[in-house]
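Key idea: predict the complex, not the pieces.
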Amino acid sequence: MGYTKRNDGRKFDETRPIEAKAGIIKRADGSAYFKMGKTVAYAAVYGPREIHPKFLQNPTKGKLRCYYNMMPFSSVGDRVRPGANRRAKEIAMVTEKALLPVVDLGKFPNSVIDVFIELPQTDAGTRCAGICAASIALADAGILMNDMVAAVSIGRVDDKLVVDLDYSEESYEGGTVADIPIAVISRTGEISLLQMDGNLSREDLKKAVEMAKKSCIKIDKIQRDALKNKYEVKK
Amino acid sequence: MGKLLVEDKTIVTPGEELAEGMDFLPAEGTFRDKDKIISSGLGLVNVNGRVIKTISVSGRYIPKSGDTIIAKVTNILMSGWILDIGSAYSAVLSVKEAKDFIRRDADLTRYYNIGDYIITDIIMVTSQRLVDASMKGPGMRKLIGGRIINVNCHKVPRIIGKKGSMVSMIKNATDCSIIVGQNGVIWINGSPENEIIVVKTIKKIEQEAHISGLTDRIKAFLEKETNKKINIERVE
Amino acid sequence: MSIEQKDHILGFLEKGIRFDGRKLDEYRPITVERGFSENAEGSARVTIGDTEVLAGVKMSIMEPYSDTPDEGTMMINAELLPLSNPDFEPGPPGIQSIEIARVVDRGIRESKAIDTKKLCLKKGEKVWSITVDICPINDDGNLFDASALAVLAALQDAKFPSYDGTVIDYKKKTKESLPLKKLPVSCTVIKIGNHFIVDPTNEEEKKVDSRLTVEVEENGTLCALQKGGDKPLTAEDIDKMVGIGIEKSKELKKFL
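Result:
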């Protein structure tokens, strides 16, 4: 039969509508709001700041610490029990690794940059939305970065590769599914996050990576526009 | 042989290509990647002849030797005081760098106690980000009373103005003492009503710093708030 | 804080103004937005000045407690997210978030704002269970009042999901609202020196001598009280603060 039309009518290479804003949490050093379809992520950056306990200090380079959390009322269905669970810890770690290549840790030894990602509403693609928000927030905080990172989930739904998998596609029952979150560093096109869940052929993976790179170019523009809108110099 | 890819005085984002060609020289806030000059953070592009740099518009204070700042005492050791300067790194004010001569067995809390705010100079920042402070310079002292506000440290130049003209205008209009630290910490002391006008004015400068005609707008704002006429000495 | 710094604030308060120019009994601008969430059964976003709090309602069906077989259950939970304040640490709820959750919970529970008997589906077997979670986005003081307002607005916004007797279909919301009988409003009054102020900013909260959170029903009946802060209050103080709380609750009520 095949997946001939997407559940929400999108084209196969189309992301959901995206909305991004920078600097929306006043107490944070940098912050962002990133909405992809129904998935909403807030990111707040605090730092560089002193790291506690002291034994974690590294005199040669700083530390980047990420936290990921879904608010209890964020999903359809059951309430999400608060507290760091294994999934959240893993996502926090891959988020950190996705952002690390663009941040120059050597510029802030003995200190830490904390990135907090919170999702008030989820509809799949949460770690990607989190990474997109975090990248904006880090730039908003004036952190020295040589580039920005965008991320999107490519999916294989039955026989089709699609961009920005939503929850209905993730849980598609008419055939096999693969969920491939990918993060792309803007200028170089290098991949800093790659995970896969499901079944996928080698050829499809190659195609998926190319689709992600293409989509991330569009997402990257939205991220940069969010920053420029906040700091725009009005003539 | 060189092409500018962005307009001068516009906001650029990390990794954005600013110029192409070997003619341009990358300065602060930029780096070279093959034949392109790239921005290394969020900032305002500044092109001066062939030199391209970006000026930070956000982010916490980064201590620089020579800066005069307002710091808060957070800890007292045998050898001096630990100061919160609003950055990731604390500063150390050693006993011998205090304003007055202090005897070896003196009780340091009687000079500067935990929670006190002081005006101090940054005299050294090592590569390991160890920061030394000193109060030997002119005007250094403990701040008594008054209130403290925090602003984006990148807006401090606009708040001070050319040769102090902006902050002087505010001081004269409101009869308040105002000390602006390079680290974005500002101390204000005056009557309650006037202090509130100072804070409103500074917040306005913070928000509108990048819009031209700032000095005249602030002058008009102050005149309205204080019901007084202001004479500005144009500083060239 | 040094004596001189304290004197400086008291100098302001004596003249009837605060650091941000407000009068002692003045709240910052308040906004209440209902239904920001498509996935929660009910939700609200409240801002008081720069303080922003989200609240979301989640409903499920479970067995009732053995001592109240014909009543549904309700629980309020708060997590002081480190996102909202550089001083909040990640990890399990600290005493501050537990206090906010329990105080807001008491106000709603003691005023019997929700008619829990109407939440009963089958006595002794099935009842609706309501959980409201409070998540601050930006903390610039007065999380108590912002949270309480957000919880009430979220409860007002909430609609039961469809239930066919066996399975809940969360994707289909009914038009049925929660049995909300009362709206207990929270007002936190702070004492600094000999002055009473409401709606403290983050900066003012650091100078608090003592505080009293007052939760009031429409007719002026108190349904919850919580004293906080290190210094004690006199009986006159308490009466004055309660009076301010009751007065202010009338203004806050307008947002619900």
